[in-house]
Amino acid sequence: MLPFLVGGDYLVISDPAAVHHCLAVNFSRYDKGRDFAEMFDVAGNGLLVSESALWARQRHVVATVFAAPAFRSFVVSTIQRHTAGLLLPFLDHAAAAGRAVELEDVFMRFSLDVSYAVVFAADLDSLSLEAAAAPYPPFGQATRMAGEAVMFRHVVPARWWKLLRWLNVGIERRYAEAKAVLDDFVYREIGKRKAGNLPLLGEGGDLLSMYMAWPRDPAMTDRQRDGFLRDAAVGYMFAAKDLVAAALTWFFYMICTHPHVEAKILDELKSLRSNSTSCGGGRGKPAAAVFDGDTLRSASYLHAAVLEALRLHPPAPFEEKEARDDDVLPDGRRVTKGTRILFCIYAMGRIQGIRGKDCEEYRPEMWLSGSGRVRHEPSYKFAAFNSGPRSCLGKDLGLTNLKIAAAAIIYNFRVELVDGHVVEPTDSVVLHTKKGLMVTVKRREAAFDE
Asked: Which of 44, 200, 337, 410 lies at a C-alpha separation of 20 to 30 Å from 194?
């Protein structure tokens, strides 16, 4: 679980007090660092890698866009539309065929389709019945290759991947080609917008439209403005796509291995059924139910089950920082300038001193108060969405995405782990599985017949 430790000196931290000290109280003393920005250069100068004044300006823009009702409405409607139009039909087809499916790949395609539509107001449809059996579309392949290359850069000594980059061979060559594909797609979309060819689907609520409507900095050249838009689009794709897919994968692994949790979620959803909408159906096929984001706000147990899965399996298992100055941690340890620190979010969810003797167990109830409301947990103790000023601005929308997809699947289908299939995490900057999540899917006929 610690591939980052190759070829470098790190201070590894899993103490909530130290997390709070570094990421919140003394935020200005700890940066992403030049090494991180260079390893993740596909993000350009975007929010994911920016620091200091540039980070503050970009954070303000992102916070304003994410809070805008038009954007939030567009994101939620996009999630619901893709759940109804892509995810459920795919699973229904698999159920009818009686074949096993690799659910992590399904979620990767679903998340790619959702994030692409949110950014560009255009449909990639990589999970459509026609496309799901085919290779990823070029844009999807490019995002996957870029993610693998960033992981590679974390694993090997810097001098090695920099040599490969200089020689333009191996994974670094494929990485350069992937970045060229991403740039071509994104700059082409920007060009369409500047020419006035706005997609009809988004009606101005998509991410690119929102950013293009942002007041322009007079000091920016056209090229710099386009670069700013490109970095925003690519950054969102990388922040949203793999993390949501990984979270859904581990959530359903927990559901498959804890049927009593599935039963409680199903009972909760049945009480909300009158507020869901039907999709699909026709030509002799039964309709499925999709729950909207507002309805699921009252699904406290589902929310708790999602948070508990994130505690045990945080999609981003580590956070990395570099000390800008000398410092002293709450436990007395000294940190010298330039020290690179790994905050082990994965470990924090599994330490008895933090979570108690049953820390390895999956218990959604721990997130619920006596009245049944979801209990608040400080971010420095539950850091799945980071902590401090760099806390994830897309937390609410991300949770909404997870709950809409999860509720639709659980209500309409029974998902069962294939016998003998072992699920374990892989070494990665995102907590993917080593061999996927092989499951069988069966219709809940009562749900389709209602």
From this structure: 44
Q: Where does the pLDDT of residue 202 fall: very low under 50, low under 70, confident under 90, or very high at 90 and above?
A: very low
CA angle 281, 306, 300 (to 5 degrees): 85
**Rounded distance between C-alpha atoms, residue 439 and residue 418, angstroms:** 5
Q: What is the pLDDT of residues 406-437, one digit of tens each?
A: 999 999 999 999 999 999 998 778 899 999 99
Give the confidence band of 443 by pLDDT, cuts at 50, 70, 90.
very high
Tokens standing for residue 221: 């050249």
pLDDT at position 58 is 87
> Of 26, 3, 19, 10, which is closest to residue 354 (Cα–Cα)?
19
Q: What is the CATH number of domain 3-449?
A: 1.10.630.10
Q: What tokens appear for 118 in the block?
A: 């949110």
Label each residue of the chain as H, E or C.
CCHHHCCCCEEEECCHHHHHHHHHHCHHHEECCHHHHHHCHHHCCCCCCCCHHHHHHHHHHHHHHHHCHHHHHHHHHHHHHHHHHHHHHHHHHHHHHCCCEEHHHHHHHHHHHHHHHHHHCCCCCCCCCCCCCCCCCHHHHHHHHHHHHHHHHHHCCHHHHHHHHHHCCHHHHHHHHHHHHHHHHHHHHHHHHHCCCCCCCCCCCCHHHHHHCCCCCCCCCHHHHHHHHHHHHHHHHHHHHHHHHHHHHHHHHHHHHCHHHHHHHHHHHHHHHHHCEEEEEECCEEEEEECCHHHHCCCHHHHHHHHHHHHHCCCCCEEEEEECCCEECCCCCEECCCCEEEEEHHHHCCCHHHHCCCCCCCCHHHHECCCCCECCCCCCCCCCCCCHHHCCCCHHHHHHHHHHHHHHHHHHEEEEECCCCCCCECCCCCCCECCCCEEEEEECHHHHHC
pTM to 2 decimals? 0.91
In contact, 287 and 276? CB cutoff 8 Å: no
- The domain segmentation of the chain, as residue ranges, is 3-449
The arithmetic mean of pLDDT across residues 212-231, rounded, is 88
pLDDT tops 70 at residue 274: no
- 40 within 8 A of 316, measured Cβ to Cβ: no
